[in-house]
Known about the structure:
Elements: E1 19-21, E2 32-34, H1 35-50, E3 56-59, H2 64-78, H3 80-86, E4 100-104, H4 117-125, E5 131-135, H5 140-143, E6 148-154, H6 157-166, H7 170-175
Antiparallel strand pairs: 1-2, 3-4, 4-6, 5-6
Helix pairs in contact: 2-3
Amino acid sequence: MKDILINKDNSFENYQLDLVKLNNLYCNKEIYLDKEAALSFENMCNDAFKLNKNIKGVSGYRNYEYQKKLFEYYSDTYGLDYALKCSAKPGYSEHQSGLAIDIMGSNMDYNKFEDSEEFNWVSSNCYKYGFILRYPKGREEITGFKYEPWHYRYIGIDAATYIYQNNLTLEEYKKTDK
């Protein structure tokens, strides 16, 4: 069930959380992820480090209240239309599952992860660890969210490999009934 579809139309419900704290080597603050996702993320970070690439988690699991405050902040600050493109409503956030992580590279700015030397490596190799770039460029109409080069979602190696090899979004993959 790691490939569960959580998006604007599919709320996060009835999913058993098995959260663990990421090792401090792999994040810039205290971050929790699903146990399986955390192990895979740490393995990806280790392999990247061997290639002189520095990947850090900046946001993982979020509870309902945190997601609610974040969505309200975007809505109050930038307007509802903008908020709906960049932040999930509470109950509809992948971060509430513990399966999503926002990351940054050696430039230490997740908003500019795409400009880091780590971005190309991560986007080309994350599937080997069960992750996908969740909101890819040019797929906004399908995912419902703006391009987010820093947002990765754990779905398991088999599903991630299929999505990577077929250039799909999670929404498209779920329609194939794989």
